[in-house]
Design a protein that fits this description.
The protein is α/β, with parallel strands linked by helices. Helices cover 30% and strands 31% of the residues. The chain folds into 3 domains: 1-85 and 159-229, P-loop containing nucleotide triphosphate hydrolases (Rossmann fold, 3-Layer(aba) Sandwich), CATH 3.40.50.300; 97-157, no CATH class; 233-297, Alpha-Beta Plaits (2-Layer Sandwich). The chain has helices spanning 50-58, 79-84, 101-111, 121-127, 143-154, 173-188, 200-206, 224-228, 275-284, 299-307, and strands spanning 3-15, 23-35, 39-43, 65-70, 73-74, 86-89, 161-165, 192-196, 209-214, 217-223, 233-240, 254-260, 263-269, 289-295. The strands form 3 sheets. The chain has a 6-stranded mixed β-sheet, sandwiched between helices. Strand 9 and strand 10 (217-223) form a beta hairpin.
């Protein structure tokens, strides 16, 4: 599988207070690869270095050290080819309200030096489900349509890599679903997606692999499944027939929390006890189980675990 993006020992140092000669390490020796055709998540808390990373790829921030290779082009030797290989969808909606989607895409293509005979405006509009709104004013588009138009703008030069920076920030559930449907369709036709988001359930649902950055450091890089496998604690909520809340429950390596006179939450490390042992113990205590809810944990638990310090 071809490497779409390769970053080796990437660092960025900003000068802070000149009088005190302080420095801010925004990125510290980041090394990672993004494979062709995958959806790659780039996660981290505010101030982690994600924006600096994307700005270096976009050419708006100059790196301090390291190597960046995009679609076979070295950032230092071929900066124009690198920029041509990436389409960046910003978090902010920056559209001219008095231009139609068709005119906006034609203008964007012109900025990339694409000849009229080579423009694929109609194809892109159809791809992001905006062909029926091609001649409408941008100001009349819904929030979800504007987001899709931003994706279309980033695709006019047919880049093999699409970077989505917080694409669903501030949109409702229905718009988010439609947007992800479009993104998956783009990925199916071969577009490599790099995604940043604060909605961790989205990353868990969408991404093949995930990198987590914290304070400029790469603290995790793995498949989504393997990251989820790091979760050691399992929680189970038992709905029971009403019982006395002063009941004493004890098992090795197991914690019991009596929430009410009909609910007990049990937490334990995976593989220390099996489920049958647990239910048998509750039955021995004359507790009748009415319902069970299991929480295996999610990407948010991994994220908090890796970034809390």
């Amino acid at each position: 599988m071809k490497t779409a993006l390769s970053v080796e020992n990437l660092s960025k140092v900003y000068l802070g207070d000149k009088k005190k000669a302080t420095k801010i390490n925004a990125l510290n020796n980041i090394t990672l690869e993004v494979k062709q055709g995958e959806i790659f998540g780039l996660l981290g808390p505010n101030g982690a270095g994600k924006t600096t990373f994307l700005s270096i790829l976009a050419g708006t921030v100059i790196k301090t050290n390291g190597k960046v290779n995009v679609w076979g082009f070295d950032l230092d030797k071929n900066p124009r080819q690198v920029r041509a290989s990436i389409g960046i969808v910003p978090q902010e909606v920056n559209l001219d309200a008095f231009f139609s989607p068709k005119k906006l895409l034609d203008l964007q293509a012109g900025l990339y030096g694409i000849k009229n005979s080579q423009k694929i405006t109609d194809t892109i509009l159809k791809l992001v489900s905006l062909d029926e709104q091609a001649d409408s004013y941008s100001r009349n588009l819904s929030g979800g349509m504007k987001r899709r138009l931003l994706i279309a703008k980033a695709m006019v030069h047919q880049p093999p890599i699409l970077v989505l920076d917080e694409p669903t920030a501030g949109v409702d559930v229905e718009l988010r679903k439609n947007l992800w449907k479009n993104v998956k369709e783009l990925n199916k036709i071969g577009v490599t997606i790099i995604l940043t988001t604060h909605y961790l359930f989205e990353a868990q649902e969408m991404c093949d692999r995930i990198a987590i950055i914290n304070k400029g450091n790469l603290v995790a890089l793995d498949t989504t499944k393997k990251l989820l496998d790091r979760i050691k604690i399992k929680k189970i909520l038992f709905k029971l027939k009403k019982f006395e809340t002063n009941i004493i429950l004890k098992l090795p390596n197991v914690k019991f929390f009596v929430e009410s006179n009909d609910t007990i939450v049990v937490s334990y490390e995976k593989d220390t006890i099996n489920f049958e042992e647990l239910t048998n113990y509750l039955k021995e205590k004359n507790l009748k189980i009415l319902d069970i809810s299991i929480d295996e944990g999610d990407l948010e638990d991994v994220f908090i675990q890796l970034t809390k310090n």
